[in-house]
Give the backbone structure.
Amino acid sequence: MLKQYQIKLDIQEKDNYGIYNWGSILQGFLLENAKVEYVEKLHEMKYNPYSQYIYRNETGEYIWVISTIGEEACQLLVEDNILKSNEIKLKQKNLTLPIISKELVKETTQKALFKKWFLSDDTNTGKLYYKILSPISYKSNGYYQIVPNTHSILGNLINKWNEYEETNIIDEDVYQEYANKVYISKYKLKSTKFYLEQTTIPSYIGELEISINANSTMKNILNMLFEFGEYSGLGIKTSMGMGGIRIER
């Protein structure tokens, strides 16, 4: 099960500068209030079964987005935690943030996404436009990559999909073929830094348009992966506040 919640927080900030850096602090709240056994289990996982980030929307409201993959993560991190809280206590900032509202905004399953896209006779125009709501970065050969490229984007989405779904939709043999069919056709980006305690992660934020020059089957699979990316997050540290994306169709 894939679920996404939006938590509207009462944050008295004068501007939006660096609000996404609160993501790691909000993760601390999630883990501090979860069962110890489950937190230990999370530390052993290659990819955490949740992503979360915070951003300021067009009307100036502060929205904390939490997405979960699987019933266990949803139950222990959200239903037994956030949904039973009226406020968020951030020890690191010595702040208590009232919760204005909580909403389950969408839910599906990986199998439902597969059926929606892969088994569909309908294809879209072959373009995907997404807004980056919290910084994205990748790490390759020991270095952070702050310039987006389709190989990193697709590889990250495919690995996360395959981690939680028994059916590996794209294996290593055909991954290169898919990556060569996708290109960045438009962008509006800026470099930034995501702060994590005593370190910073070079990253980028903004808007991207992805074009797909492929047959209908490939188009549908790639659309499915990007829709999944709204739950899994894109890039590294998505459970700490990075990689929040929203697809605009």
